Amino acid sequence: MIKVFIAGVLTLLVGLFSAPTWAVLTIEITQGQDTGIPIAVVPFRFQGQQRPNEDIRNIVSADLYRSGRFLSLPPGDFLSRPSGPDQIRFKDWRLIKAEALVIGRVSQLGNDRYEVNFYLYNVFKEKLLAGYRWTVGSSQLRQVAHQVSDYIYEALTGTPGAFDTRIAYVTVEKDSSNTRQYQLMVADSDGHNAQQILRTNFPILSPAWAPDGKRLAYVSFASRTSGAMIWVQNVETGERRKLLQEKGTASAPAWSPDGRRLALRLSRDGNHDIYIFDVAASRLTRLTKHPGIDTEPAWSPNGRHLVFTSDRSGRPHIFRISAAGGPAQRLTKEGRENAGASYDPNGKHLVMVTNQGNGDQIGVFYTGNNELKLLTDGPLDDSPTYSPNGAMIMYATQRGNQGVLAAVSADGRIKQILRLHQGEVREPAWSSRKQ
Amino acid sequence: MNRAVRKFSRPVRAVILAVLVHVAFGLLLGLSLSFKPQVIEPSVAKPVKAIVIDRSAIEQEEKHKAEAKKKHKAEAEKKRKAEAEKKRNTEAKKKHKAEAEKKRKKEAEKKRKAEAEKKRKAKAKKKRQAEEAREQEKQAAYSALGSLVGAIKRKIEGNWSNRLACSGQEVTISVKVNISGEVTAVKVVGDSGDDTCRRSAENAVYKASPLPFPDNPRFLKWLDQEFQIIFKPGI
Amino acid sequence: MRRIFHFSLVLLLSVVLVGCAATKKKGSAEVEDSSVNLQADATSSGLSSDDSGSVQVLTTMDNTLDLDDPLGTRVIYFEFDSNALTPEAQRIVEAHAEYLAGNPGMAVVLEGHADERGTREYNLALGERRANAVAELFQMMGVMPDGIRSISYGEERPVAMEHDESAWSLNRRVELLY
């Protein structure tokens, strides 16, 4: 009796609350155009006598395009060119289907002093999303443009931008006597403003930025009879010194997240192991002790763990160990070889070089479910480095029999070659700090 | 009264009832006792004068009387019979009339019913036809919209520029259109999806305006001009 | 006459190289080749500019070419991802070990190399492993440790530039430099 009653009440309730299906049409959308957010970046209006060399609009547009997340609409299609909020006719931008609008002004305040204003709008809601102003000299205009890109990127994707950052890399050229000349270069993340910070006949490897963005650690050779050594160089002043006074060869420097220590590979008596060097105390602590080759240490973002490459189980694979020492756990089980791993800024993924039978490819390893996702085709890809926001990975690859740098989005969808230099380019390192 | 009585138990109730009955009787008796007997006063006789009477005359008179009486009786009988007959006739007639009336009424009723039925049927048919017409119009409206769902879907897909923003997520947008298919209101339903995903879905709908929509004004009463779009890239 | 001409040419070249130091930019550092070993330089640059991929043979003391003389071979090769000495390599190393053991004043630099597959740091360590394998055999055969220098350039100084096994097999090597 009760059951019938309850059933009756329920039926009534269901009838009341469920909309009759004929009234609400529901359409499911699963496909789309992965062209990126269509954005209109209007050329910034200039007011003054001396127009600067840097075109902010072009730098911003190139940044956004390179990220793979945006489709920068061609200025030829713009129906108007506002430079201030009061000049905007949103209909003009709806017509060309821009989802976002960027406008700005550069005003000359004096000799080599400029004021830059920029505004970002949501077109269909006619809403201001960001607005900023800078007062700078002409030499800082490129940096301002990258900061504009960062604000746009963050407002529209929810992730902080990484355009106002620097990269270090190594170039190799053969000089007139056919000797290889190595250069360590530092440039803006778009390859501009490249500066040579070291030049030598000896190979340069493994540049690593200190967290403060002011120093670079790298590997090179002092003479023809000495093995690999680690140097630390101040990028601004050029001052450099050898890190260790120890016997043996040292390489693979990796700064701890707090910048106080360097993990590295040291070999004494033929044994290659991971050590941690405390810079202030000038003290070396051994982390691994194994007859196999242990190298390429990399810190987790919270500084508690390190991953490293070891061939202790046969072929090179990735292992993890606590920064305080202890047993090492093997992380990668699949594939012929896995090496050169480093954490993404969130500490959840590892990017690495993996060989699954098709040569060396860049892959992302998910520590949660042990899945490895291939991002590149290889067969000779190397040195992956995450951008500071974890959205992109820069790495070394071959194009037309020459070494070049490329950038791939973290999900592997968009790839781009960076045109940086004549000759071979390799070993990229992405600074983790804004300038 | 019942309620009051119900309050008490059975034996008590019985006693109360008995008492009441006795009281009633008592009252009745009392009332009857109060009647006065009727006194009938005899009437005073008149003085009479005697006359000589002839016996034959008396016999003849008696014979006459008897005959008259007989005749009277026969007449009365006759009359009575006739009256009875008459009465019977009248009654029969009456009955017949009543029956005829009844019959007539019945037939009229029948006729009326038949007509009402006919009317009703005609009305029902008309109604049914009207309903069918409406139904057809409704189906035509649905089918017009249905044939456009594919086009609506494609137009929105063609304008969803930032599908990746919703990877691993799902967001539902409620859309209102006018008869020209122009989007008049866009609203995110529920709270799934992050800001970037929601924005990408809203923008897809805005840019897809005007959406393909049946333009026959008669269809408008059937079609909800509000529908829901679920963005679910599944990647 | 020829030899003097060659010698002076090399001398001239090295003078020119030293003289032409590039201008130092702010923050830039120049590292020169401090201990220039002319003999070794000539050898290594000769090796690197020669793409024929054939084994280099130096003349012996009395200037006659003897292909069967293991001492004439200054390079030994390795299998992929391995630092084990092949029998052929062993033969050559032993010959050099004998020579060195018999000439205590001589010093040798063992330069280990690897092919380009795998990461640069791992190959740096692998090249060092290979050089050490030779050094161990030397020491076992009585060569003094002081006279042995093991270094590695990993994959940084290949002799063959192609991206195939024929090139890779030539790059997996240890060079014996006197």
- The strands making up the biggest β-sheet of chain C line up spatially as 2-5-3-4
Percent strand of chain C equals 5-15%
The pair of chains with the biggest contact is:
A-C, 60 and 44 residues
Proportion of residues in β-strands of chain B: 5-15%
The CATH class designation of the domain at 147-231 in chain B is Alpha Beta
Q: Structural class of the secondary elements of chain C? A: alpha+beta
Taking the alpha carbons of the first and last residues of chain C, their distance comes to 25 Å
Q: Can you count the helices of chain B?
A: 4
Number of strands of chain C: 5
Taking pLDDT < 50 over at least 5 consecutive residues as the criterion, the unreliable ranges of chain C are 14-26, 32-65
Compute the number of strand runs of chain B.
3
The shape of chain B, in one word, is elongated
- Major sheet of chain B: 3 strands, antiparallel
- In angstroms, what is the radius of gyration of chain C? 18 Å
Apparent shape of chain C: globular
- Give the second-level CATH assignment, the architecture of the domain at 147-231 in chain B: 2-Layer Sandwich
Task: Give average pLDDT of chain B, whole number.
Answer: 81
CATH fold-type name of the domain at 147-231 in chain B: Fusion Protein Consisting Of Minor Coat Protein, Glycine Rich Linker, Tola, And A His Tag, Chain: A, Domain 2
Number of helices of chain C: 5
